[in-house]
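Tutorial, part two.
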Amino acid sequence: MTVPAVEQALSWFTRNEFILAELAREAHARGDAATCWSLTDSLAPYLKRRGAWARQRDIQELGLRASSALGSDQAGHSALSLARALYGLGDHTSAAYVLDEAAQFFKEADDRSGEADVFLTSSDWSLTAGDFQEALDLANTSLSICAEIGDTVGTGRALNGAGWDLIQMGHPEKAKQLCQEALTLLEAASDLTGLAITWDSVGECHRMAGSFDDAIECFATAASLAEDIQAFPLAAEVLTRLGECHDENRDPDGALRAWSRAAQALQREAIPDAAALAALHDRIRKHTGS
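Running the prediction step on this input gives:
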């Protein structure tokens, strides 16, 4: 999708989110499982992008109940979205349980793309837990599946996932090769979210190599994309790294500008990350001496 098309779609969902949620509840109440599930599934990407994890949890629990009358594939998608919402809310134990359910549903439905999504999600969570090798193994499993079934977007995102894992393991050159492959695929598929995430990864590779000008250019590209598509949690993460890169490059004014934009992005989330916002404000105070 193009940036204007994404903006138009997001604007529509912003105006109609609560109407769609109410229509889903009404459909469930009258036993119309197909309509209920379709409505909850249509809301999933929007709520994920907004970081609206509590609303996502509630709507995907409804979708999962509706899916029991439909099939394993629908159940898998609802369970995957629910697992991500629970993880975003900090309930990692429940998230892991529901993610296992999603994997089983996709396996029953022979949905290989869904299985790849589960592996990549598991990879992200393993990375957060500090198990870098497990994260890399899971990302590579996702990559193998996506390559096998010809899923271009999935392949690009899995390449970037593996690249990010390698960055955390201290291998930026290997990571950059994978991420540049990912950029080619994601550009061809017009996957703006995937492109934003991957430009961020390439920026981190340059930063680790001490190539600050190249890193700043990549981070700036990633941040602009994330802001354009209103992926505010992602934008805040990238802008925080952009500020750190400016700071390391002895450009305090550039650092302040990036961190101020990051704070603005965080404040546009459905539930702002209070700890991240406080850390940004602390950095800004220290740099301004106020």
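Residues 116 and 145 are 6 Å apart (CA to CA). In part three we will examine how such features are distributed along the chain.
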